[in-house]
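Hi U.,

Before I forget, here's the chain from the pilot set. I'm dumping it here mostly so it's searchable later in email.
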Amino acid sequence: MVRRLNFLCASFVRLAGVIKHRDTEDTKDAVKMEPTTPPWKENNFCEYSKKEREMRKQLSLIVLFVVALVTFACSDPASDKPKATVGEAQPQSSAQKPAAVETLVISPENSKIDFVASKVTRSHQGSFKQFSGKIELVPNSLPESRVSIDIDTASVETDTPELTAHLKTPDFFDVAKYPKATFVSTKIEPNTSAGGNSYTVTGNFDLHGQSKSISFPATIEVTSDKATMNAEFAINRKDFGIVYAGKADDLIRDAVVIKLDLRVPRKK
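Structure:
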């Protein structure tokens, strides 16, 4: 599917081998170089010791630097993101829509739907290039408004062509069987604890043949010329029946970070 190890992790392993080899060679040299006269009588003993200490110090600094890079490269991108609350799908409201509803069209020209998935060795950036949707905006009443999005799963694209192709197979999205993923909001509530333009958005998310209700934090703002919604949260792919584990030595993490950036113009 993808490379088994990323460059930094492989570099760390190779460096560990170099250090181990160096220590082994030092031990061999020490055995071979046992002097017949006390080393402190040799003029170069102090110089040799100083060089040895300096070399070991440099190796230690290199190890610390590489470990820091490896930790960053292999860390879980979802670890510091809010987790979406997942439950059973909720029925759509049967309440009559307010008379003053403004329909705003969501499209790839004004919005982005991105994601970040990861394995134990690296993370991957991805996005969906084809989707459509709408915001049914009730002016001055966001809780009465509604957001709906239809995503073409075959439009998935990542930073690795091999991964892009694999995501379309039955191991992941199975785009031939499930060509669409949809989200329809059922509730938009102000997040009073965060204040400002912070809201909690709840809606039915249909992915891979599984329909679940999810709730996630979002920042929503409506101005005279556009409506924007930004959200970044994590979902568990296994909640939607995507359970492919990956290779035994390079397992895929369950959490996937979803990034929504909607910037939808209002009609003039």
